[in-house]
Amino acid sequence: xxxxxxxxxxxxxxxxxxxxxxxxxxxxxxxxxxxxxxxxxxxxxxxxxxxxxxxxxxxxxxxxxxxxxxxxxxxxxxxxxxxxxxxxxxxxxxxxxxxxxxxxxxxxxxxxxxxxxxxxxxxxxxxxxxxxxxxxxxxxxxxxxxxxxxxxxxxxxxxxxxxxxxxxxxxxxxxxxxxxxxxxxxxxxxxxxxxxxxxxxxxxxxxxxxxxxxxxxxxxxxxxxxxxxxxxxxxxxxxxxxxxxxxxxxxxxxxxxxxxxxxxxxxxxxxxxxxxxxxxxxxxxxxxxxxxxxxxxxxxxxxxxxxxxxxxxxxxxxxxxxxxxxxxxxxxxxxxxxxxxxxxxxxxxxxxxxxxxxxxxxxxxxxxxxxxxxxxxxxxxxxxxxxxxxxxxxxxxxxxxxxxxxxxxxxxxxxxxxxxxxxxx
Length: 425
Hints:
By secondary structure, the protein is mainly alpha-helical. It has a domain at 85-201 and 238-276. Helices cover 57% and strands 2% of the residues. It has a two-stranded antiparallel sheet with strand order 1-2. A hairpin with a 3-residue loop joins strand 1 (58-61) and strand 2. Helix 7 (194-200) packs antiparallel against helix 8 and helix 14 (339-357) packs across helix 16 (387-398). The chain is globular and about 65 Å long.
């Protein structure tokens, strides 16, 4: 689920500069129509058009047509006004908060916590960030202020999860409370544990992977292995953080413009990225130790290899996430799956990677009608089908085969290797 934001990088640049002074009217390419020259007057030479800034670009903005940025890639005010308007997302979140469904209310609380944290000021009153780029003390203080501002919502989420026993609410509470970490947790988070999650959702391999990660933090190797065994045998791997895409299904969005829809898409996706769900890391750390560590230098036992083989199978066959599939393929390669079994899985992973990378295909196309429609379709598919199934559908709609995309992936990797080799000389 992570890495979807990469395709939106251009827009993030535009929004990040939203406090800059808009270009003066004389600097814009769309000048007023020239006044008519009286018939008796001498025909004057028309003034030369203002020179286009060196860094300016023309992009398509759905509903507004072709729009030109200035030399710092700042969009015109009428576009930034829409991108800065959190109203459509807030209305969709409010609908979820008023629901009788605890998982809907949990989703709303996550968004409210994010809004409270962001309200401390990503941008100052001048429109500029309050911290210099490398001022880590300032950035950490700002993050701590944001955490404290969100604490009431996180506490409410933890209480909702504890009282309802709802799997989605519990998964979101676990991530919002900081997982296995005990530092700076909101009140009520002490009751949110991986062990309790596995009791609420015992058939979900994601919960067991979280339990394995928590056991690794506490250095309880027996509990870690037992949790990984349960994960390997789990019938499903539900990444419940995809519930944060539920605002996209709000009835209120039927009345918004495509550009407003884009802001909801972006807000929901950033919420998923911010919550940082990577449960398959527990399997990766056990089966593919980091180079240079004692575990990496020690041949694995037959029991460890057998468990990792089963984990690879479970992640590849039953994990709905892109990252879970990637970790599964990596573990399969580590334990020595034969090429005729492994190679098709690697090609599929490469094709899915390129599908994510190519959507939208160009930064300049991010705000076009076609791009917003494709993005909305993919996120909606992710909500209802899971990330991997959504990426497969997106690949099919692209018209490109697995082989084509895999070749593109390998060509990019080969070029990167050539550059690294050149730099090493």
